[in-house]
């Protein structure tokens, strides 16, 4: 076709062709809906307007939905080198400019293969193709757009090793920082803000040693801003976040420079307050960890080293690439997608999720969950190697690479967006990521049943005043059973003492260590420790109207469908060295915790009076006036303190209790989950103006909405408790938008009318089209799947290393009657599953 003809062919589409600008994400290495890439047989189609990439089976969907017609098709061809080619050289690459960010497949020996990259424009719906480069015949705008797209950098670049932590600048205050000689020594644990008692997002001021809470900036976690206030009062510029201190450094923030910074003298500054971070690099006698190693390490046992393991292929046996300390994500997702409820919710609903996904599916949680689930379960990316004779035959023409595992770059980039830890390239705690994922699942409903409900259970907490003997019963929601390690119950104490003596002698003489002896802890002892009473710090007794000694015990008010058990192995030593308890616990294959069922108020027990503790009035007149109004709001302070003990910001807890009408900590907890991403989440509660009626939290949620619809805030609260939207609206309408009465109405109407209000359907579609299209009819009721407390083990996650900030994770899952080990890309039949060394265990309820 002549140059003029090509120009005329593209004229109708010129308004839709864009040149990538700074900030545009160009997905030229991976499909938005699958793990197809230019390496795949069908190549990858990149939209010349949205810059999204699509595999061959998904390109038609994007064309139909958007009407975009022009795509850049990218394909990499892999062929065997001709005999006699120089060995040991890098593979030959023609058209090298095309795919600067494409990796060479690790499955292929670069000495034996060469690569040829091909690009062409494809015009839909006729699939008309224009080969590139074709600079002379194409319009200038098209040529510039193609060149810019092909040379664009990876949209994941910030997620990879050159992350923000390597771009930090040394603080101008680091070298000349003045530290007060005030005798302050910081303990290795038990920190809390000295002004508000908050126990999360705490910062140590490096000048005077003050421990104060942060604000919702740099770190992203909640706080009341007392660290910033302290800087404004004193001018002390640098603070380090407690909990981030490792031998390699720590997170340091400069209030004066208003950004995260490097402190080249951080070791000296921390030592001033008794924190010897450099000591973390070495053992107690000064020998480095890699100088002396035990003969049998947990690395070898957990990864089943030294045993020939048979690789597993096919659906459900797909590995995941480690993106650099992303094994914590890999193991959690492998465990999650071994659960049928998650498989049905995402993979079972995949066609509908994809069809109703937003225009940018890379930024949609349900789409990316469905994509990952399909990648793991389809078997499409887990195929056994071809037989040698087939390989030889194929190599005579063109090599078609076998996909071995998937790379979760797009998934990690999306779910970690805005999170200070998961968006970094550092190792993370798998338990924290599990809860982060559950939070996202809760906030992104995929149908009438939320798959995370299988983990959800109610905990009954019984608090008793030791002096008056009166009690208070409360309930809260949880997803994980955390078991303490009962070290004092070790059954091999004599062996441990003998080993410790031999170990010290060997270290002193610099000889090899003796055979490792782990503490053997009975699981029954850990379960007993979980059920025993614990002291309540700063307990205020409403019976005595004063602080007193208090104890708390926890029981299960409901048992979940899937029980997740975390062994609390990680701690700090007195010398601030992060330590993991290297123990062996005889975790049972079958677990019965029926005896931990909550029983509620017992005969003869007397409840503590429902009286809130007094509010301490500060010296600041403004704060005094504020507290006067807060006190008049009649906020249930006991609920506030329950939430604050979970680590949420105090002001957010007050708002949660206020806006849910003092209905208890559980309802307020659901409000927190639904609102924690809002920018003003931790801001103080806005008090009604003087003279304005400050009604109860339920009535203060707002007037009746448009078209006689209940206030959306009240609807959201009821939905967050596990009820369907149409039921929430129906209950509120029936009770004149009284939240407390609406909940009573729901429980008194277990079988609501099947006929729905047409107006509700319209509102539902407008508010959440995807969720409602996927919704199916289901029974109403709280999102608790209660049942017997008998369970069977089906999976566990193990950690190797000295702390959650380092090391490696692997996962063992029981599938088709046998144990399978998932070690990033490597998936094999397990021969010796180390069930006694796990960190997180997954149990499934045994049907009664």
TrEMBL record:
Would the keyword Hydrolase be found if you checked this record's keyword annotation? yes
Matching Pfam families: UBA, UCH, zf-UBP, zf-UBP_var
The UBA domain extends over 634-675, 709-749
Q: Which GO terms describe its molecular function?
A: cysteine-type deubiquitinase activity; zinc ion binding
Where along the chain is Zn(2+) bound?
193, 196, 213, 226
UBP-type domain sequence ranges: 169-277
Describe the location of the USP domain by residue ranges: 318-846
Cellular component aspect of the GO annotation? cytoplasm
Ordered alphabetically, the record's keywords are: Autophagy, Cytoplasm, Hydrolase, Isopeptide bond, Metal-binding, Phosphoprotein, Protease, Repeat, Thiol protease, Ubl conjugation, Ubl conjugation pathway, Zinc, Zinc-finger
Main subcellular location of this protein, as a coarse class = cytoplasm
Enzyme nomenclature, EC number: 3.4.19.12
Q: Which InterPro entries match?
A: Papain-like_cys_pep_sf, Peptidase_C19_UCH, Ub_carboxyl-term_hydrolase, UBA, UBA-like_sf, Ubiquitinyl_hydrolase, UBP13_Znf-UBP_var, USP
Subcellular localization: Cytoplasm
Protein family according to the UniProt entry = Belongs to the peptidase C19 family.
Quaternary structure, from the entry: Interacts with UFD1. Interacts (via UBA domains) with SIAH2 (when ubiquitinated). Interacts with BAG6; the interaction is direct and may mediate UBL4A deubiquitination. Interacts (via UBA 2 domain) with AMFR; the interaction is direct. Interacts with UBL4A; may be indirect via BAG6. Interacts with NEDD4.
Q: What is this protein called?
A: Ubiquitin carboxyl-terminal hydrolase
Species this chain originates from: Zosterops borbonicus
């Amino acid at each position: 076709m002549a140059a003029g003809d090509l120009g005329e062919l593209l004229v109708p589409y010129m308004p839709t062709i864009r040149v990538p600008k700074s900030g545009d994400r160009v997905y030229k290495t991976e499909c938005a809906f699958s793990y197809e890439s230019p390496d795949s047989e069908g190549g990858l189609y990149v939209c010349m307007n949205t810059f999204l990439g699509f595999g061959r089976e998904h390109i038609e969907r994007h064309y139909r939905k958007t009407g975009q017609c022009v795509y850049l098709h990218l394909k990499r061809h892999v062929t065997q080198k001709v005999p006699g080619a120089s060995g040991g050289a890098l593979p030959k690459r023609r058209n090298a400019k095309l795919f600067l960010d494409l990796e060479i497949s690790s499955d292929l020996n670069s000495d034996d293969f060469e690569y040829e990259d091909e690009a062409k424009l494809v015009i839909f719906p006729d699939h008309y193709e224009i080969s590139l480069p074709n600079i002379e015949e194409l319009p200038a705008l098209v040529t510039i757009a193609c060149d810019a797209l092909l040379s664009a950098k990876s949209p994941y670049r910030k997620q990879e090793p050159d992350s923000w932590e390597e771009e930090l600048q040394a603080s101008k205050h680091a070298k000349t920082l003045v530290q007060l000689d005030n005798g302050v020594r910081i303990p290795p644990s038990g920190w809390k803000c000295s002004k508000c008692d908050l126990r999360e997002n705490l910062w140590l001021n490096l000048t005077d040693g003050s421990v104060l809470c942060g604000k919702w900036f740099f770190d992203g976690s909640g706080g009341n801003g007392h660290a910033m206030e302290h800087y404004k009062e004193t001018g002390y510029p640098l603070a380090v976040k407690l909990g981030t201190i490792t031998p390699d450094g720590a997170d340091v923030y400069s209030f004066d420079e208003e950004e995260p910074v490097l402190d080249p003298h951080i070791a000296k500054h921390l030592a001033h307050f008794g924190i010897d971070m450099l000591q973390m690099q070495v053992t107690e006698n000064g020998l480095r960890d890699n100088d002396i190693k035990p003969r049998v390490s947990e690395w070898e046992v957990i990864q089943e080293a030294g045993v020939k393991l048979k690789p597993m292929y096919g659906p459900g046996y797909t590995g995941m690439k480690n993106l650099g300390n992303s094994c914590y994500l890999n193991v959690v997702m492998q465990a999650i997608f071994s659960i049928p409820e998650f498989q049905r919710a995402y993979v079972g609903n995949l066609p509908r999720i994809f069809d109703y996904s937003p225009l940018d599916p890379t930024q949609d949680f349900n789409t990316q969950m469905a994509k990952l689930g399909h990648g793991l379960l389809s078997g499409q990316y887990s195929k056994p190697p071809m037989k040698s004779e087939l390989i030889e035959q194929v190599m005579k023409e063109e090599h078609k690479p076998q996909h071995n595992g998937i790379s979760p770059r797009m998934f990690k980039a999306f779910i970690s967006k805005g999170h200070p830890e998961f968006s970094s390239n550092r190792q993370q705690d798998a338990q924290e990521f599990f809860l982060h994922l559950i939070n996202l699942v809760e906030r992104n409903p995929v149908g009438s049943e939320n798959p995370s409900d299988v983990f959800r259970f109610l905990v009954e907490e019984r608090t008793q005043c030791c002096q008056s003997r009166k009690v208070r019963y409360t309930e809260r929601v949880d997803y994980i059973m955390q078991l303490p390690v009962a070290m004092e119950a070790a059954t091999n104490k004599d062996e441990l003492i003998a080993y410790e003596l031999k170990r010290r002698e060997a270290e002193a003489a610099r000889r090899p260590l003796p055979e490792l002896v782990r503490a053997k802890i009975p699981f029954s002892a850990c379960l007993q420790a979980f059920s025993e009473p614990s002291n309540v710090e700063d307990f205020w007794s409403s019976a005595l109207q004063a602080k007193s000694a208090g104890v708390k015990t926890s029981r299960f008010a409901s048992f979940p469908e899937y029980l997740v058990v975390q062994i609390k192995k990680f701690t700090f030593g007195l010398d601030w060295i992060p330590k993991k308890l290297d123990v062996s616990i005889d975790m049972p294959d079958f677990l019965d915790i029926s005896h931990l069922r909550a029983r509620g108020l017992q005969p003869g027990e007397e409840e503590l009076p429902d009286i809130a503790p007094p509010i301490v009035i500060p010296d600041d007149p403004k704060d005094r006036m504020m507290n006067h109004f807060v006190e008049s709001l009649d906020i249930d302070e006991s609920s506030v303190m329950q939430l604050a003990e979970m680590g949420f910001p105090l002001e957010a807890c007050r708002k949660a209790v206020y806006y849910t009408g003092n209905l208890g900590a559980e309802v307020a907890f659901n409000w927190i989950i639904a609102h924690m991403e809002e920018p003003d989440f931790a801001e103080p509660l806005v008090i009604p103006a003087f003279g304005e009626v400050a009604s109860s939290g339920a009535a203060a949620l707002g007037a009746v909405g448009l078209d006689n619809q209940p206030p959306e805030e009240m609807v959201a609260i009821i939905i967050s408790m596990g009820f369907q939207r149409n039921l929430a609206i129906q209950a509120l309408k029936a009770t004149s938008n009284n939240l407390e009465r609406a909940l009573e109405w729901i429980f008194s109407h277990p079988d609501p009318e099947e006929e729905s209000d047409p107006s509700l359907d319209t509102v539902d579609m407008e508010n959440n089209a995807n969720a409602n299209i996927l919704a199916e009819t289901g029974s109403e009721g709280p999102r608790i799947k209660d049942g017997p407390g008998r369970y069977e083990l089906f999976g566990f996650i193990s950690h190797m290393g000295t702390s959650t900030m380092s090391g490696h994770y692997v996962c063992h899952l029981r599938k088709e009657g046998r144990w399978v080990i998932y070690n990033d890309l490597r998936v094999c039949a397990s021969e010796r599953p180390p069930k006694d060394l796990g960190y997180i265990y997954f149990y499934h309820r045994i049907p009664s």
